[in-house]
Amino acid sequence: QAQLVESGGGLVQPGGSLKLSCAASGRDFSIYGMGWFRQAPGQERKFVAAISWNGSTYYANSVKGRITISRDNAKNTVYLQMNSLKPEDTAIYYCAAGSPYRTPTWTVDGYIYWGQGTQVTVSS
Questions:
Q1: Which secondary-structure segment (H or E) carries 76?
Q2: 11: which of 21, 97, 119, 122 is 20 to 30 A away, CA to CA?
């Protein structure tokens, strides 16, 4: 059974850093495009970053230069390194898997599997 489990969220001060992890199991996720989305209270789930099966990366304009997505296929894990965090980055962050060998999309409906989310709070 396919499963994605996020970890690494927490409370951080503005300007701080966090590294989120997404541990995947139950499928050969090395051939899947993987994405991170976030959802703040009262808002829709929004695209943050994605990485294709062959390592190409894609970012939302709001996070470019501050956030880096990476993957370690040997560990079946996808990471989201977040630096220079701002209060507006506060949200639940979700990991998602798209279709095998397909370019990741920017939309929620382009992903098949989802994790349960991890809370990130940026506050002083």
A1: none
A2: 97
Cα separation, 1 vs 91, whole angstroms = 27
Q: Which residues are bridge partners to 123 per DSSP?
A: none
If we measure between CA atoms, which residue out of 30, 43, 22 comes closest to residue 114?
Answer: 22
Using alpha carbons, select from 50, 40, 31 the residue that is nearest to residue 95: 50
In whole angstroms, give the CA distance from residue 98 to residue 2: 12
Query: Alpha-carbon distance 116 to 92, whole Å?
Result: 9
List, run by run, the mean pLDDT of 10-residue segments along the chain (124 residues): 95 98 94 97 96 96 96 96 97 96 92 97 97
Contact yes or no for 11/121 (Cβ under 8 A): yes
Cα-Cα end-to-end distance for the chain: 40
**CA dist., res. 21 & res. 71, Å (int):** 9
Query: Distance between CA atoms of 77 and 82, rounded to whole angstroms?
Result: 16
